[in-house]
Amino acid sequence: MSYEIVPYAPRFEAEVAELQRGLWTPDARVNAAYLRWKFLENPCGADPLIYLALAGGRVVAMRGFFASRWEAGGAAEPEPMPHADDLIVMPEHRSRGVVKPLMAWAFDDLARRGYRNVINLGARPVTMLSSLADGWRRVGGVAAAGFDREPSSWRGLRTRLRRARGLWRLEEALRHPRIADPFRRLDRAARTNGGPLTLATAPRPEAMAALVASRPWDGRIRHTRDSGYFGWRFRHPFHEYRFLFWEDGELRGYLVLGRSLSQLDDTMRVRLVDWCVADPPVLQRLLTTALRWGRFSRFETWTATLDDSTRAVVEAAGCVPLAQPGLRSQGKGLLLRTLDGTWSAVGRHDPLRLESWDLSLLDAMEG
Amino acid sequence: MTSHDEVREALEVSGVALPHDYDDDTSLIRSGLLDSMALFKLALWVEERVTPGLDLAAFDLAAEWDTPRLLRAFIARHGIARG
């Protein structure tokens, strides 16, 4: 079958939202909102880098690249790197050679637009391997760490419900974000709290960006965190966030917890997606308080590029490595692909060394 | 040593439709002969034959697995003795 590869245009919005019911959320209206937020309202770049494969005039596959900007010591300006995401192919068009021409078209277009590199932090094993076959390089794993304290009896019950004829809908209902709310205890505990720590459901973009800008920076490659970015990023249409702020006359630290509301995800998994603190003890206070108040059953963060003192705080909070050895359960990683063939430095850093990077879950749409 | 026939069988089990002129120098990766699922199944097969496991950051898959000959050489370099 031959496919026509085209760039995104607004007339495809409804078809894309429908196609992505297999990857984003089952709700096409939410998907349309996500599409607009991610690609059209993104302050890192609002030119939608979305590539579609058409068969018979219908959208059958999509690859998106959302805009991201990375600053690095030695670089005068942040470097824009389109972030590959959202690869989906209609089931009846899989294994028919649609992805290769779609990606080739996308890379040619991105190179023409002047981008040097593309990045991916969200590939699962199958996509990761096909990406490596297509010239991507895996720089290293993100080293997800956390815990899973869900009682095995509850997990077993959910598995039995999922498999039982006629009862899978009950299992699905139990995962509905209004029922499965991992922030319930956190919210309740915070209401009775006094003192320097406050919990909020909305970010404080200006104050958070000012805190980031005030902290010493080792110059490693990191995503830009300005007020515009914070203001946009936490409006993710199917994620929910909690913000813990530590104030002592001025903002001394923040910590952001997130969870997905999509029934295609684990709605009970809480992710530590970002933080910035004036000194390590503040992080320890924020994290231990969040975990004590929230008593989450499943918790996750990325640890690959943490410094030793931060890693110690995360480990002391009970986080252990989540990825298992082996391809099937291998965790996600940092994938890069050069578009100009040079693998040239970002600022003064070699992008193919994991030590060059300072990554957090917020940098991926998982966060 | 992994044989020519073992690689061929692994490819067939992975669901790859081998061309009539398939030989040790047939391009598997750069030609697009392997789709993503076939590549994943082949990688699981390779993983069983190397030690201490596949570190995907440590080699250039597109270059080092592109033909059956290169794939056998990769396994020979990283392989474990199979009884």
Radius of gyration of chain B: 12 Å
Strand order of the largest sheet of chain A: 10-12-13-14-15-9-16
At the third CATH level, what is the topology name of the largest domain in chain A?
Answer: Aminopeptidase
Helix content of chain A: 25-40%
Mean pLDDT of chain B: 89
How many E strands of chain B?
Answer: 0
- The fraction of residues in strands of chain A falls at 25-35%
Question: Gist?
Answer:
The complex is a heterodimer of chains A (367) and B (83). Chain A has 367 residues and is of the alpha+beta class.
Question: What is the topology?
Answer:
The complex is a heterodimer of chains A (367) and B (83).
Chain A: E1 4-7, H1 13-19, H2 28-40, E2 49-55, E3 58-66, E4 69-71, E5 79-80, E6 83-89, H3 99-112, E7 117-120, H4 125-133, E8 137-141, E9 144-148, H5 152-163, H6 168-174, H7 184-191, E10 197-200, H8 205-214, E11 222-223, H9 227-233, E12 239-247, E13 251-260, E14 269-277, H10 280-294, E15 298-302, H11 308-316, E16 320-321, E17 333-338
Parallel strand pairs in A: 14-15
Antiparallel strand pairs in A: 1-2, 2-3, 3-6, 4-5, 4-11, 7-17, 8-17, 9-15, 9-16, 10-12, 12-13, 13-14
Helix pairs in contact in A: 1-2, 5-6, 7-10, 8-9, 10-11
Chain B: H1 4-13, H2 36-47, H3 61-64, H4 68-78
